[in-house]
Amino acid sequence: MISSFLIYFLKIMLWGIVARALSSWIPDAGKYTAVQILFKLTDPLIKPIQKVLPTPGMIDFSPLVSIILIQIMIGIIQ
């Protein structure tokens, strides 16, 4: 019961991170309320990784790393 809820929550967060990464391609996306909420929901996962991971140029790999970590957690729980 708890494991299925946790897996469901992690999958929602995974898709939230994908949506966050895609929203970075939209000019002025930060002014939309939905994107602001998306950033507030995914920041607890993304920000610690951004602090540790260096950013080469303009590419941010923290969403990719967080997606990989979520997939690992889902695999462990299942």
Task: Spell out the blueprint of helices and strands.
Layout: H1 2-23, H2 33-52, H3 62-77
Question: Which terms would index this structure?
Answer:
78 residues, mainly alpha, 0% strand, globular
How do you describe this structure in short?
The chain has 78 residues and is mostly helical. The chain has one domain. It has helices spanning 2-23, 33-52, 62-77.
Written account of the structure:
By secondary structure, this protein is mainly alpha-helical. The chain is 74% helix and 0% strand. The protein has one domain. The protein is globular. It has helices spanning 2-23, 33-52, 62-77.
Radius of gyration: 13 Å
Tell me the strand percentage band: under 5%
Structural class: mainly alpha
Helical proportion, percent range: over 70%
Q: Number of DSSP helices?
A: 3
Number of domains: 1
SSE run: HHH
Number of strands: 0
Overall mean pLDDT: 92
The main sheet comes to:
none
What gross morphology would you assign? globular
- Unreliable stretches (pLDDT < 50, length at least 5) are none
Distance N terminus to C terminus? 12 Å
